[in-house]
């Protein structure tokens, strides 16, 4: 079984054509702008939406673990919560939900197969995302092999933050790597995200040597973190013969999820990034002979 946070049908930004994106749980990084913080842990997790909550306190009454209190405000004690879901059943306005469930590879494939004809008509397929889709490695590898056997186009939206051995094992089954390059300064990358620069670069070097055409480099462009890196990363990707860099301008879509998990979202004060401000990077890419796109 593999822990899945969400399955999104008709996705159009996670690779070519119409796709089904499977968000797998577990990640070794902790990027402070993360849009899916509920995927960091492998285990299912309870989320509470204060905007929907009417403070009826039925959840507090029914929780067998006494994990919910209201002193002074609604609070989940995650050290007690077992994500059993009892409270979600008592919550009439649906302010509580469990994010994550355990599924077999076959159950995931059954879900994805529903849209097979859309994939065929649009050259789409399945994207594994997360979290880091290789975090639950053995289970992910089984799923990747099954997707390949069924001849679906498979894209992997990945941090690249794992051993070369793991990459070598999955590479033959993956049609497209959407792999992040967030910063070229190892210290800064580690300090802000927890990522291992040398590991990621080793994996990029392997893909550059063996299958550069299967790689799109993705760069989330983040205020006060890596705006100065845009041209450097485009140049670096061109040197490694990757055909495309996708710049993903900062957005705050994950903000509510951070709040619903009782976590502080440190990017709350930053505005959305305007795609127009990234247009010079597209021109720069043309100048040095690499395709640069804004958005995925
Ligand atoms: S049951 Fe739902 S609406 Fe009532 S207090 Fe709990 S979370 Fe809020
Ligand atoms: S998920 Fe279960 S253990 Fe957690 S707060 Fe709700 S009822 Fe309590």
Automatic annotation (TrEMBL):
Cofactors demanded by this protein: [4Fe-4S] cluster
Transmembrane segments: none
Reactions accelerated catalytically: glycyl-[protein] + reduced [flavodoxin] + S-adenosyl-L-methionine = glycin-2-yl radical-[protein] + semiquinone [flavodoxin] + 5'-deoxyadenosine + L-methionine + H(+)
Keyword terms of this UniProt record: 4Fe-4S, Iron, Iron-sulfur, Lyase, Metal-binding, Oxidoreductase, Pyruvate, S-adenosyl-L-methionine
Keyword Metal-binding belongs to the record: yes
Class of the enzyme per the UniProt entry, highest EC level: oxidoreductase
Name this protein carries in UniProt: Glycyl-radical enzyme activating protein
Organism listed in the record: Faecalicoccus acidiformans
């Amino acid at each position: 079984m593999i822990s899945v946070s969400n399955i999104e049908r008709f996705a159009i930004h996670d690779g070519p054509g119409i796709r089904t994106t499977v968000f797998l749980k577990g990640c070794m990084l902790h990027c402070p702008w993360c849009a899916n913080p509920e995927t960091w842990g492998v285990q299912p997790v309870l989320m509470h939406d204060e905007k929907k909550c009417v403070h009826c306190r039925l959840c507090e009454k029914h929780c067998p673990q006494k994990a919910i209190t209201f002193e002074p405000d609604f609070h989940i004690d995650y050290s007690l919560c077992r994500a059993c879901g009892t409270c979600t059943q008592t919550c009439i306005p649906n302010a509580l939900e469990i994010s994550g469930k355990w599924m077999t590879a076959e159950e995931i494939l059954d879900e994805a197969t529903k849209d097979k004809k859309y994939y065929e008509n649009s050259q789409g397929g399945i994207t594994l995302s997360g979290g880091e889709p290789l975090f639950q490695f053995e289970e992910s590898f089984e799923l990747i092999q099954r997707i390949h056997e069924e001849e679906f186009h498979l894209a992997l939206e990945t941090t690249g933050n794992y051993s070369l051995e793991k990459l070598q094992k999955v590479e033959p089954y993956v049609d497209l790597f959407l792999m992040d390059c967030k910063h070229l300064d190892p210290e800064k990358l580690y300090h802000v995200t927890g990522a291992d620069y040398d590991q990621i670069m080793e994996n990029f070097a392997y893909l550059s040597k063996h299958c550069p055409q299967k790689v799109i480099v993705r760069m989330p462009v983040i205020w006060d973190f890596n705006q100065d890196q845009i041209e450097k990363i485009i140049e670096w990707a061109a040197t490694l013969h990757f055909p495309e860099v996708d710049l993903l301008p900062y957005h705050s879509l994950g903000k509510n999820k951070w709040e619903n998990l009782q976590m502080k979202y440190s990017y709350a004060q930053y505005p959305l990034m305007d795609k127009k401000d990234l247009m010079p990077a597209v021109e720069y890419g043309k100048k040095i002979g690499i395709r640069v796109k804004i958005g995925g």
